[in-house]
Design a protein that fits this description.
This protein is of the alpha/beta class. It has 9 helices and 6 strands, in the order αααβαββαβααβαβα. Strands 3-2-1-4-5-6 form a 6-stranded parallel beta sheet, sandwiched between helices.
Length: 291
C-alpha cells in the first residue's frame, strides 16, 4: 500500500498563497537571505578561522605530522626527540637528474638515503657520503623492488650498529623515462615500456613499501611519513601534440596519487605529487633523441 501525505490545512494554504504575492514575496525573500548572511556566513567564517589556527598550531608544534623534518637541527622538545632517531628515505632513479641531486641533498641534511640506481656503474658517484647506500633498482622488476625493501627492513632491524631508533621516513618515486612522437609512429611496445616505468613503477614501489609505512603508523612509532610521486606538468595540463605516451603515464600517476592520498589519510601518511616542468635533466636534454 502506498501511503499518501495529507495536503496542508486551509490555514497553511492561505499563508503560502499570501507570501507568494507582492509585497510579501519580496519581504519573505529579504528575511530569508538576511538570516543566511547574518547568521550562516559568520558561523562558516568562524569555523574556517578556528580550523586555520588549529592547523597552524599542529604544523609548528609537529603534532600533526606535517612539519618539516631536519635531522641536523639541535634544539629542545621535539627536535631533541628527532636527534635520537635515524630517518631513512628511499629514492628511485638516482643515476642522474633529480634523483641524484635529491639523494645528495637528503644525505647532507642528515637522512640515510637508499639510492636506487638502474645501472650499477652509477654507484661510484655516491662514494663520498656514508649516508648514501646505492642499490640496484629497476622499478619494472618485482625482484629488484623486493630486494630494496629487504635492505631497508634489515637496516630498520639492525640494533647493533646504532643506539638510535630507526624509521622509514619517505619514499620518492622519481624514476622515469620519456619517448615522444605521433601516436601512429610510436609502437605499442614503447607505450607499454613508458607506462611500466612511469606509472606501474610508481604503483609497484608504493605497494612494496606500504606495509612498512602502515606498520609504523599503526604502532604510532613515527608520525609524518610521506610518499613523493614525481609526475610532470604533462600530467596536469592538456596533453600537447606528440607527447601522448609520456603524458598518459604522467596523468595516470597523478590520478593514482590522488586516490592513494585519500586512502592513507587515516594513517597519517602524506602523499605528495611533484609536477616539474622543463629543467636541465637528461630527460629534457635528450628529448630530441626520443622523438
Amino acid at each position: 500500500m502506498v501511503r499518501t501525505l495529507d495536503p496542508p490545512g486551509p490555514l497553511l494554504q492561505r499563508l503560502n498563497t499570501l507570501i507568494h504575492k507582492e509585497p510579501f514575496s519580496s519581504v519573505s525573500h529579504a528575511l530569508y537571505w538576511s538570516t543566511v548572511f547574518l547568521v550562516a556566513v559568520p558561523v562558516v567564517i568562524f569555523y574556517f578561522l578556528i580550523y586555520t589556527i588549529w592547523s597552524l598550531a599542529l604544523y609548528f608544534t609537529g603534532l600533526g605530522g606535517d612539519s618539516c623534518y631536519d635531522p641536523q637541527k639541535k634544539s629542545s622538545g621535539k627536535n631533541k626527540q628527532q636527534q635520537r632517531q635515524e630517518l631513512a628515505v628511499v629514492i628511485s632513479g638516482c643515476d642522474s637528474g633529480f634523483g641524484k641531486e635529491l639523494a645528495i641533498v637528503s644525505a647532507q641534511e642528515g637522512f640515510v638515503v637508499f639510492a636506487g640506481c638502474l645501472q650499477e656503474s652509477s654507484f661510484a658517484q655516491f662514494d663520498f657520503s656514508s649516508n648514501i647506500h646505492p642499490l640496484k633498482l629497476d622499478v619494472t622488476k618485482d625482484e629488484d623492488v623486493a630486494q630494496v625493501v629487504n635492505k631497508v627492513e634489515e637496516w630498520l632491524m639492525d640494533e647493533k650498529s646504532t643506539t638510535k631508533q630507526r624509521f622509514l621516513h619517505a619514499l620518492c618515486n622519481n624514476a622515469g623515462i620519456g619517448n615522444f612522437g605521433a601516436a601512429d609512429w610510436v609502437d605499442i611496445a614503447t607505450y607499454q615500456k613508458i607506462m611500466d616505468v612511469n606509472f606501474f613503477g610508481v604503483v609497484r614501489c608504493c605497494k612494496a613499501f606500504l606495509p612498512l609505512f602502515k606498520k609504523q603508523a599503526v604502532e604510532r612509532i613515527h608520525k609524518g611519513a610521506r610518499i613523493f610521486n614525481v609526475s610532470s606538468m604533462a600530467g596536469l595540463v592538456k596533453a600537447a601534440n606528440g607527447i601522448s605516451p609520456y603524458a598518459a603515464s604522467k596523468h595516470a600517476t597523478v590520478a593514482f596519487s590522488s586516490s592513494l592520498r585519500q586512502e592513507l589519510q587515516a594513517f597519517g601518511i602524506q602523499v605528495c605529487t611533484v609536477c616539474p616542468s622543463f629543467h636541465g635533466t637528461p630527460l629534457v636534454e635528450n628529448i630530441h633523441n626520443t622523438m
